[in-house]
């Protein structure tokens, strides 16, 4: 769901806001977000969705109506040199740069100050994406008077160190903010979608007593799975494209980005997924190693040494210094694609990183197709996420690897959608026809968060 694009909003064009605007100025005007322009008791106000990562913060504001119209969308993206803030509103666009090195409470307060310039906003609820929720149900509400679940979320942060800690920090910042003091904070967990994975596919062959049986938050040493909000968002539109009810859809969904995973969907529900106890298991990513022999961890020098972030050095190495960054020397997949056809040492490293990534992806996609063959087969292979949606090179490499398999891409028509397009064999460098349509679908985690919140409220 996109907001309309219009003129670019600048400091000398009506808003009077510069990049030096201090977030604590005009608190009373900012509090207009807490009030509607109308006194109508039936006005449901707006929902602010926060999707935080280690190097980005995406946010959207929706009218809290069944249609969930997006009135504003924005992001804060950290780069090597600065941070770029972008906002799209129905009235136009605004951009600025800031000297930020991390997502922090100060970043949130600045964003709230920017939102306070839109007098029509009346934010009543803040919805947070939280990557790891273990057994906790999505829709968990946290308020100033009821914060007892925060301790569990903080403990779970050690199992999703790149994301959970940032989410918890932002929840605390919202609770402390004079702007959002009356708002309810609702948590949406990526793990919730994968609760349908049964014990055969979710169980690790470990002694539960030895591995830990009574951990906070009902945490078991088992596969939990992630990217659940992204997969749910895709499944919101996919059934109509395939001409099926959601409960009839069998698909292999590939969320490919800085973090990557694959999910086998059977009967519209998560059947298996590549990530496990943590997002580290499965496919390699920008800085994550993916699945490795567990004994490797014991041989990383100073493996148990605690880092400033609270995780061990081994966890930091596997989560932050591995993946594309370790093999190709860059975590940017676009740079890898640009380099991989050159004969330089950088090109050879880039080619190795790309080949390893495709090989691991083939392994998961192929194994899921085999598991699904006795459960109705595969109706579609779907790509989403930053790499999955944008990388033609990745699509071609994967198509070549699977050209002779039962998952070879087919040109059989699917229904059209502005959020999805079908990959044709000609653009993948293939002749003839295949068996399964391949689709590229745009995901929208913030929209899915808003839908979950509205569903929870009936």
What would a concise description of this structure say?
The protein has 15 helices and 16 strands. The protein has 458 residues and is α/β, with parallel strands linked by helices.
Structure, explained:
By secondary structure, this protein is α/β, with parallel strands linked by helices. It folds into 2 domains: 8-194, Nucleotidyltransferase, domain 5 (2-Layer Sandwich), CATH 3.30.420; 243-287 and 322-445, Nucleotidyltransferase, domain 5 (2-Layer Sandwich). Helices cover 31% and strands 20% of the residues. It has 15 helices and 16 strands. Strands 1-6-5-4-3-2-7-9-8 form a 9-stranded mixed sheet, with helices on both faces. Strands 10, 11, 12, 13, 14, 15 and 16 form a 7-stranded mixed sheet that branches. The radius of gyration is 22 Å and the shape is globular. Mean pLDDT is 88; it is low at 1-42. Its EC number is 2.7.2.1. Residues 13-38 are annotated as: Disordered. This is Probable acetate kinase. ATP binds at residues 58, 255-259, 332-334. One of its GO terms (biological process) is acetyl-CoA biosynthetic process.
Defining key terms:
alpha/beta, Nucleotidyltransferase, domain 5, nine-stranded mixed sheet, seven-stranded mixed sheet, 31% helix, globular, disordered N terminus
Give the count of structural domains.
2
Number of helices: 15
Residue stretches low in confidence (pLDDT < 50, at least 5 long) are 1-42
What is the C-level CATH assignment of the largest domain? Alpha Beta
- Write down the overall geometry: globular
What structural class is derived from the secondary structure elements? alpha/beta
The CATH topology of the largest domain:
Nucleotidyltransferase, domain 5
> Strands of the biggest beta sheet: in what spatial order?
1-6-5-4-3-2-7-9-8
- Report how far apart the termini are: 21 Å
Strand % is 15-25%
The averaged pLDDT comes out at 88
**How much helix is in the residues?**
25-40%
Gross CATH architecture of the largest domain: 2-Layer Sandwich
- Please give the oligomerization state of what you see: single chain
What is the CATH homologous superfamily assignment of the largest domain?
A: ATPase, nucleotide binding domain
What is the rounded Rg?
22 Å
- Could you give the count of β-strands? 16
The major pleated sheet works out as: 9 strands, mixed
């Amino acid at each position: 769901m996109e907001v309309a694009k219009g003129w670019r909003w600048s400091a000398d064009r009506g808003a009077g806001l510069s990049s030096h605007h201090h977030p604590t100025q005009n608190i009373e005007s900012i509090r207009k977000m807490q009030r509607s322009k109308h006194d109508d008791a039936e006005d449901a106000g707006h929902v602010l969705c926060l999707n935080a990562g280690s190097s980005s913060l995406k946010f959207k504001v929706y009218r809290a109506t069944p249609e969930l119209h997006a009135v504003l969308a924005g992001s804060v993206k950290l780069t090597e040199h600065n941070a770029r803030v972008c906002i799209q509103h129905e009235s136009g666009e605004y951009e600025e740069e800031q000297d930020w090195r991390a997502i922090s409470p100060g970043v949130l307060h600045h964003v709230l100050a920017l939102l306070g310039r839109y007098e029509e906003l009346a934010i009543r609820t803040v919805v947070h994406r939280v990557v790891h929720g273990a057994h906790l149900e999505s829709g968990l509400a946290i308020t100033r008077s009821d914060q007892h679940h925060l301790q569990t979320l903080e403990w779970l942060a050690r199992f999703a160190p790149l994301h959970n800690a940032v989410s918890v920090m932002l929840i605390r910042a919202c609770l402390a903010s004079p702007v959002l003091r009356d708002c309810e904070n609702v948590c949406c967990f990526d793990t919730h979608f994968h609760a349908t994975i049964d014990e055969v596919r979710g169980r690790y062959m470990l002694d539960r007593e030895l591995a830990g049986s009574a951990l906070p938050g009902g945490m078991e040493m088992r596969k939990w799975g992630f990217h659940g909000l992204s997969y749910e968002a895709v499944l919101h539109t996919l059934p109509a494209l395939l001409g099926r009810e959601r409960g009839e859809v069998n698909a292999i969904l590939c969320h490919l980005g800085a973090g990557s995973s694959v999910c086998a969907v059977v009967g519209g529900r998560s059947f298996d997924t590549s990530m496990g106890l943590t997002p580290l298991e499965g496919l390699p990513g920008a800085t994550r190693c993916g699945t490795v022999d567990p004994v490797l961890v014991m041989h990383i020098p100073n493996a148990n040494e605690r880092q400033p972030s609270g995780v061990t050095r081994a966890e930091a190495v596997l989560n932050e210094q591995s993946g594309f960054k370790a093999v190709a020397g860059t975590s940017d997949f676009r740079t890898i694609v640009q380099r991989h056809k050159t004969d330089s040492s950088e090109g050879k490293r880039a080619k190795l990183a790309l080949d390893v990534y495709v090989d691991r992806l083939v392994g998961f996609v192929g194994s899921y197709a085999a598991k699904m063959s006795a459960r109705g087969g595969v109706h579609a292979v779907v790509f989403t996420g930053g790499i999955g949606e944008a990388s033609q090179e990745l699509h071609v490499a994967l198509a070549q690897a699977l050209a002779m398999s039962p998952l070879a891409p087919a040109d059989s028509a699917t229904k059209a959608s502005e959020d999805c397009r079908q990959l044709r064999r000609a653009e993948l460098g293939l002749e003839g026809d295949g068996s399964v349509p391949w689709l590229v679908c745009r995901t929208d985690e913030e929209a899915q968060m808003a839908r979950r919140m509205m569903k929870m409220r009936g």
